[in-house]
Structure formats: C-alpha cells, structure tokens
C-alpha cells in the first residue's frame, strides 16, 4: 500500500487585547501575536499528514487598529455579537480507524457553529446575517444555512473559549454536507493570513497539490482566551487550520520516503516576518517502543516530546526563526526517510471510533444505524451523540434502540426535538455510557416523504445528504498528561481545554449518509394539472347534468342532414328508411 | 370493535329507514300520486326484509373495511361516529344527531356538509314543509343549528382545556385545509400539489376545498324530498374529494348500496364501473410496489390508477343518481310512454 502523509497546518493567531466588558477599560497598545506551525506526521499506510496551525491577534476595543487580525472577521464578530465562531470546510472523510485520532476533525462539507454574546436579542436574525456574510467572505454557499438545517444543541458543543454562563439558546449549529470545497475557498482563507502566501509557512499552500489529496479540511476558529495564566485580561484568538492527508503513493512517487518538496512542490524559504513563532514539527515517534524508524534531514533544531491524545509522541522541531536553519541553504526541505523499508506503521487502534450507515430497501422506509466502538481495555466512559436528521426523513423515535454487548443500554440523558415540516430538522442528543471494550449499536427507523417538485435539487436521483452525527467524549488516556503552559506547548495540542490530566477531549464525526427519496415525474406539471382538473370536471359535469335537467319524452325529430342522406342511401339499397 | 359498532348502527338505521320508506310509499299510493302502471316498481316488504342485513354484511365483509381495520386506521372511528349520526337522525332525535355530527366534524371538517341532509330528514319527519317563508321551518332549522354549534363549541373548548392552547386548530384543521403533506394516497390531491407551481398553490387549494362543499346546496334543492339519498351522495362526494381519502371512507358509502338495489334495472354502466373499481383496487398495491420498491415504474403509473379509480367512483355515484331520478320519474308518470303516433318513446334529459 502506498504512503500517506498527513500534513496539518495550524495557524494560530493569538489576539491579545482587552475584552470589551463593562466599565472603562484602559486601552493599551495591542500586542498582536502570530504563531505558525506545521505538523507533519506519517500515517499507517504511510500517508503523510500535514497539519498547519496558525493564529492571529486582535486588539479590542481599539477596533480601528487592525494589525495582524483580519479586519473582515474582526468587524464581523464585533457587529454581530459573536462570542465564538467555528467554521470548517472539508472535502473527504477522516478514516479514524486507519489513521488514528485526528487533531481536529470536521464533517464533510461546511460546518458552522457559533456562540453568541448574551447581549444579542434576536439570535436567529444574527445567525442568518452571520451565515450570509461568511458566505461572502469565504466564497462558500453558506447562505443555504436556514432554519431547516440549523439546530440548537443542548449538551454538545460547549464553548471552547472562556465562558461564564452557557445558555444553550445562544448556540447555533448547522452543517451543509453537500458543500464542495475547492480552490476558490482556499484563496480567501489564505488572504486572511498576515503574510498571505508570500512568506512563512503559507508559501507551501499550492492549491493543485493541496486538493490532490484524500482529505482536505480548512477551518477558522475564533474564541476568547485568557491572555496569561492569571486571566486578568481577555483577548480574541483566531485560529486558522488546514489539515491535508496526502497520498504519496498515488501522487506518483511510489516510494515511502517523502519530503516537503515532494508533497507541496515548494520548500520553505523564510519565516513570516510578522510571526513571533514559526515552527515545523515532524512526528518521529517510535512505534512499538523500538528505536526510531524514521530519519529526518536536515537535522532538527530540537526534539520535543509531548503527550498528545493520550499517547507519547516525539517531534523533531525546526524553528524557522532561529538563524541556524537557513544558514547553509536558502531553503528548508525537510526530508523523511524510512530506516527499515517496508515496515507498515501500526498506529494503535483509537480508543473511540464510530461508523454510521443506512439500511433498508425501497423508497419508503429505512433505518439509520450507528456503531460506536470503545477499544479501551478496562475503562468505560460516556459519550454524547448528536444527530441532526432533515425533516423529510421522518424519524420514528419509538423504534430507537441502543444495544451494547447484546443487552439494551439506556441513555442517561435524551433530548429529542421532533422536526416540523419545512421548518426545522430532527435533533436527537443522547448521553450513552460505553462499557470497556465494547461495540454499541444505535438504530432508528425512518420514513421518507414526498417533496414538492420545486424542493428537489437539480439532480434528485443523486439523493439527499444526512449530515454527520457528532460524538463528543472525554476519553481516558493511557498515559497521564501533565498540565503544561499554554504558551510553550505546540498549538495543535491546545485547542481543546482539558480539565485534568487523565482524559482528553475528542470530537468525532461519522460518515454523512446519502438517502434517496421518491421522486415525482418532473416533466409532468402541465399534464397533471390537466388530468386532475379533467376528473373534477367529469364529476362536475355529470352532477350538473343530473341536477339541472329533467326527464322529457323525446320528440320525434324530422331528421337532420345526416339522416336524410342515410335515407337516400337506404332507398338505393332497397332497405326501409330510418 | 368500532367496525362492529358501525355495522350494528347501520343495521338499525336501515331497518328504521325501510319502515319510513314503506310508510311513505303507502301514503303516496293512497294519495294517488303514482301513475297506474307502475306496479312493478313499488317496493314490497318481502324484498325489503333482508336489506338491513345486507347493509351490515356489506360493510363488515367489504375488503376495504378489512384493510382499514388491519391497518389500524382511525377511519374506523370516523365511520362509527357517522353511522351513529345516521342512526340518530333516522330515529328522529335531533339532539343526539347534532352531537354526533359535531363529533364527526370535530374529527375532520368535511361532515359539516352532512348537516343539510340531516336537517331535511328531520324536517320531513316532523312534517314541516320546506318553504322559505314558513316560520316553523326556520324555527326548527335554528333549533337544530344551535344544538349542533353548541355541541361543536363544547367539544373544541374541551380540547382547549386539555391542551391549554389553541395550537391544535391550525395543526388539525389547517392541515386538512392546506394539504401540506404529500404522501401518496388514493386521492387526487397529492400529485397535483407535488407538481404545482408555488405561485398557484393557494388558489388551487381553495378551489379543491370549495369543490367538496359546493355540491351541498344544489343537491339539497334537487333532493329535498329524498334526504337519505342525499346523505348517501354527500358521503360519497366527501370520500372522493376530501384532502386525504382512505379506503375506509369508501367502505362507508358502499355499505349503503343495498338500500338502493331496486335501482338495478336503471343503472346504465354498472358492469364496467364495477370492473374498473375492482381492477384498480388490485392494481394499486402492484404499482405502488413497482414505484417504491422495484424502482421500475414511475410515480405516473400510480397516479394514473388514482385517476381511474376516482373516475370510477364518480361515475358510480352519478349512475346511481341517474337511476334514482329516472325511477322517480317513472313512478309519477308511468312506465310506458307512447308518442302521438303510438310508438314507444325514449326518455332523455333535457
């Protein structure tokens, strides 16, 4: 099998600035900070994975002075009273079972979830405006987000930044599974970066290589965070992340060794001058407690060890700001070689993974089944499952069954909001306890509705998408994690706040489903109207006849022209006349 | 259980109705209203003896009734209420009849049109002539209307107190009137509104709903002497043109067909129509399966069968109507007609 590398680009923009709270706040000159990181890790099957994280900063309330923070987003969050914003545009599906736990997963299509400030009075109106404005900024069809695909989850999607009260009526969540991500979505994302794609890690973002991949996800996260450990001041943080899974085998290389140039067709020439930190992390964790399998060239600046997602990982770090990196050559091309050839990388099975599928035959009914796997050998933990099903698949909640190890499993919390036709979708949230080393199967049956012909998409036989369900859990980690300083740890470890060292937060998405609905014949509107009105007219005509006419004895008529002609012919034939 | 109740109610109702018909016939013969040579058209008690039993059996053994019973549809409850309403009307109790009619209207709006035939029957029973200027006519009408409206208001207010809000009114009656759900059924509406342009949908919804209520007044004028037949035709029209018809509704009006079995000699197309109805009923599940499960047929196939089935029902009702009117004409004018020159004459509608 070929090599796959996941490249995760994380751009973390730390916005330092006073929080727009009540009372006079002394306005200091803002300290915007930009940190960028590139994380490369090989996946089993050798897919390299690159994750790039980056961040920007904004000073508030001096909203006229945007240095690094993009003005478009800054004005947007200020004007609409947004507290947290998370937007992700994804193409492809992250195969958790094969590739392991992702640093940050997003469902296929477009996902947007937003926490509003408590000062916002009409949340729905603000949500609608926000989705329309974001649709313009990112050139994505987010304007299709309306009440038929927006839900208000009660238990999932707790705020990731600072929050002093969580009234879930301020939260809105929507997914557009049909959304396609392409270059015209990447370009505005790149424009939000302070250095653009001219300097720093962003020079690697060549669209033709990025989209030639198995999984591509770009995201924007805005949230308020504490500026330092004492949390006296609050500032905005904008994270832009781009996660790509490359398939080096299919991209023609044939060998499992890879390098930056092979993946991105560019090399790093310098760091972004506006960045306070610019690093490249390469995952060289030894597997199976053996010596290193991987060799990186040129030699890294340092080696960093961290416990990420319950696993001890070793990273080779290249600090682009240190002068030693660009000393010898003008460009940095990180290369990875396998010491022992043909060793398949065996990532341990992730502790929590899930899959979902639809079953049934025919266009009338069906069944959605979700399978959740807990592979931890001895620890059980609860998981929150959030399912959003569009209104035209009518769920029968009385057929909901949850079976674990052959026995019924009763969830400790269920929140179900039934759909209203053409107004809102189904929302089902459950807190399910997963026993150790088990498979839980959740099934629910549904019936398909016939829509009006204008409500079908232009290709109705392609089917309708059901967005991914979301699983949120605090997974117990095998290794105890220490509390680390947020400033010093790599960006890709600090997105999700962790309360204690024994578990880490994971949010997983299942596959989106594709369901066919019965279709009327689209070529028939005029014919249908004519035929139905004909039937009604038949009824009307018969009744009119019977109601307004009375019986009469028929008067003999002299015979019209036809009768006279017929009589003439009969006379010729010799038959008596009519 | 409700089906059995319906059958029992229908049995008792038709028994009483037969007595009334016989009495009326006797009266008219004595009044010499009938022509001399219509002896073969007069109904005898002998032939009418088994009719109530036939009606009950027709209802219970109708495959449509069995199907709606197996499907556990609430149509059976609707039918029971309407059957009790008919029983109360024939027995002459205005109060009970108003209560049952209010219950039936509360469940689905359309039995409102059955107010007119019930009123006409009760007036006839009280021997109040139907003249617009007659005071007793208006008095009785007002009484009955008040009873009906009061019971309806009581039932709706009970629902309000159970639910503590008026939300149920748009959900129940708004749903029946505005037809938002387009699940295929045996009626004409679903495909029509599935293929409708948005611009015209309100217009056509109004047209279709008016179509159901529209036949009441003309039928009342024409059939004021024969309120039971009017009731039958009205129930049939409701079950064909209501927004979500089911086979249970059809079973109800088909149960009445034995009451008019004496019209058999005047029916023109009964053979073809019964064939059409049977064949369509058999083809319904076949084409549904082909559309939804096999995927080898289109929604058009199912829609065509819907059209044919409804045409069959409409023509059946109008055939019975024609036969009824023709018999009435023969009763008053005699069976055989001669023209001025002594030849046999034909009867036409002009």
From TrEMBL, chain A:
Residues 1-20 form the signal peptide. One of its GO terms (cellular component) is GPI-anchor transamidase complex. It comes from the Eukaryota. Keywords: Signal. One of its GO terms (biological process) is attachment of GPI anchor to protein. This is PIGT transamidase. It comes from Glareola pratincola (Collared pratincole). The gene is Pigt.
From TrEMBL, chain B:
InterPro entries: PIG-U. It holds the Pfam family PIG-U. GO terms for cellular component: GPI-anchor transamidase complex. It is a multi-pass membrane protein. GO terms for biological process: attachment of GPI anchor to protein; GPI anchor biosynthetic process. The keyword Membrane applies. It comes from the Eukaryota. The keyword Transmembrane applies. The chain crosses the membrane at residues 82-102, 108-124, 145-166, 172-193, 200-221, 266-288, 300-322. It is found in: Endoplasmic reticulum membrane. Its main location: endoplasmic reticulum. Keywords: Endoplasmic reticulum, GPI-anchor biosynthesis, Membrane, Transmembrane, Transmembrane helix. Pathway: Glycolipid biosynthesis; glycosylphosphatidylinositol-anchor biosynthesis. Belongs to the PIGU family. This is PIGU protein.
């Amino acid at each position: 099998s070929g090599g796959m590398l996941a490249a995760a680009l994380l751009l973390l923009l730390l916005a330092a600035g006073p929080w727009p709270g009540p009372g006079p706040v002394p306005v200091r000159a803002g300290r915007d900070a930009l940190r960028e990181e590139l994380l490369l890790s090989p996946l089993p099957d050798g897919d390299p994975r690159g994750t790039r994280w980056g961040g920007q900063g904004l000073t508030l309330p001096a909203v006229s002075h945007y240095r690094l923070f993009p003005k478009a987003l800054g004005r947007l969050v200020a004007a609409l009273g947004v507290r947290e914003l998370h937007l992700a545009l994804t193409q492809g599906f992250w195969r958790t079972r094969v590739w392991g736990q992702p640093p940050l997963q997003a469902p296929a299509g477009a996902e947007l979830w937003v926490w509003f400030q408590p000062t916002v009075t009409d949340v729905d109106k603000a949500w609608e405006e926000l989705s329309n404005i974001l649709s313009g900024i990112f050139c994505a069809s987010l304007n299709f987000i309306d009440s038929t695909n927006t839900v208000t989850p009660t238990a999932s999607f707790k705020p990731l930044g600072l929050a002093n009260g969580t009234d879930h009526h301020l939260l809105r969540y929507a997914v557009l599974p049909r959304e396609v991500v392409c270059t015209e979505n990447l370009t505005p994302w790149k424009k939000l970066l302070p250095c653009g794609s001219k300097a720093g890690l962003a020079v690697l973002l060549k669209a033709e290589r990025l989209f030639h991949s198995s999984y591509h996800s770009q995201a924007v996260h805005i949230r308020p965070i504490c500026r330092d450990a004492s949390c006296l001041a609050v500032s905005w943080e904008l994270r832009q992340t781009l996660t790509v899974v490359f398939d080096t085998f299919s991209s023609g290389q044939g060998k499992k060794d890879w390098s930056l140039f092979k993946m991105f067709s560019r090399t790093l020439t310098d760091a972004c001058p506006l960045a306070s930190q610019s690093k490249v992390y390469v995952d060289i964790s030894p597997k199976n407690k053996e010596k290193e399998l991987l060799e990186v060239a040129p030699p890294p600046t340092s080696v960093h060890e961290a416990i990420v997602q319950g696993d001890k990982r070793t990273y080779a770090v290249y600090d682009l700001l240190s002068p030693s990196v660009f000393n010898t050559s003008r460009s940095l091309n990180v290369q990875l070689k396998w010491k022992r050839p043909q060793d398949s990388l065996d990532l341990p099975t992730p502790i929590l993974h899930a899959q979902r599928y639809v079953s049934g035959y025919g266009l009338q009914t069906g069944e959605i089944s979700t399978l959740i796997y807990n592979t931890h050998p001895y620890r059980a933990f609860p998981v929150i499952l959030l399912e959003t099903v569009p209104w035209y698949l009518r769920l029968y909640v009385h057929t909901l069954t949850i079976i674990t190890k052959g026995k019924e499993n009763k969830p400790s919390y269920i929140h179900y909001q039934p759909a209203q036709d053409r107004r809102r979708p189904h929302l089902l949230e459950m807190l399910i306890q997963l026993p150790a080393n088990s498979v839980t199967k959740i099934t629910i049956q549904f019936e398909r509705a016939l829509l009006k012909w204008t409500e079908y998409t232009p290709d109705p036989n392609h089917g309708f998408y059901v967005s991914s369900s979301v699983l949120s859990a605090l997974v117990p980690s095998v290794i105890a994690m220490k509390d680390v300083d947020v400033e010093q740890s790599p960006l890709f470890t600090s997105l999700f706040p962790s309360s204690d060292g024994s578990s880490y937060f994971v949010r997983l998405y299942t596959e989106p489903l594709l369901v066919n609905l019965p279709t009327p014949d689209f070529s028939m509107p005029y014919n249908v109207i004519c035929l139905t009105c004909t039937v009604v007219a038949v009824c009307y005509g018969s009744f009119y006849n019977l109601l307004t006419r009375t019986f009469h004895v028929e008067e003999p008529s002299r015979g019209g022209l036809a009768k006279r002609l017929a009589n003439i012919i009969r006379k010729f034939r010799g038959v008596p006349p009519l | 259980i409700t089906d059995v109740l319906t059958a029992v109610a229908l049995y008792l109702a038709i028994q009483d109705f037969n007595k009334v018909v016989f009495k009326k016939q006797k009266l008219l013969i004595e009044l010499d209203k009938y022509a001399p040579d219509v002896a073969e058209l007069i109904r005898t008690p002998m032939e009418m003896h088994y009719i109530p039993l036939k009606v009950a059996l027709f209802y219970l053994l109708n495959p449509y009734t069995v199907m709606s019973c197996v499907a556990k549809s609430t149509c059976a409850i609707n039918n029971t209420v309407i059957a009790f309403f008919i029983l109360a009307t024939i027995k002459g109790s205005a109060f009970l009849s108003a209560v049952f009619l209010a219950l039936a209207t509360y469940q689905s709006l359309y039995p409102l049109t059955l107010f007119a035939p019930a009123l006409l029957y009760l007036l006839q029973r009280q021997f109040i002539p139907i003249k617009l200027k007659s005071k007793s006519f208006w008095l009785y009408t007002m009484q009955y209307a008040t009873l009906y409206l009061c019971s309806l208001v009581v039932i709706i207010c009970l629902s309000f107190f159970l639910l503590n809000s008026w939300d149920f009114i748009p959900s129940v009656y708004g749903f029946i009137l505005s037809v938002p759900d387009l699940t295929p059924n045996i009626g004409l509406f679903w495909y029509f509104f599935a293929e409708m342009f948005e611009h015209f949908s309100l217009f056509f919804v109004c047209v279709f709903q008016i179509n159901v209520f529209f036949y009441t007044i003309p039928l009342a004028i024409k059939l004021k002497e024969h309120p039971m037949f009017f009731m039958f035709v009205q129930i049939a029209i409701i079950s064909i043109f209501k927004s979500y018809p089911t086979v249970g509704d059809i079973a109800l009006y088909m149960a009445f067909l034995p009451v008019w079995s004496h019209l058999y000699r005047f029916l023109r197309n009964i053979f073809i129509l019964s064939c059409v109805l049977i064949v369509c009923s058999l083809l319904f599940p076949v084409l549904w399966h082909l559309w939804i499960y096999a995927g080898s047929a289109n929604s058009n196939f199912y829609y065509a069968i819907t059209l044919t089935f409804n045409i069959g029902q409409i023509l059946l009702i109008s055939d019975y109507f024609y036969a009824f009117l023709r018999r009435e004409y023969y009763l008053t004018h005699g069976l055989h007609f001669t023209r001025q020159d002594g030849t046999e004459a034909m009867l036409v509608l002009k």
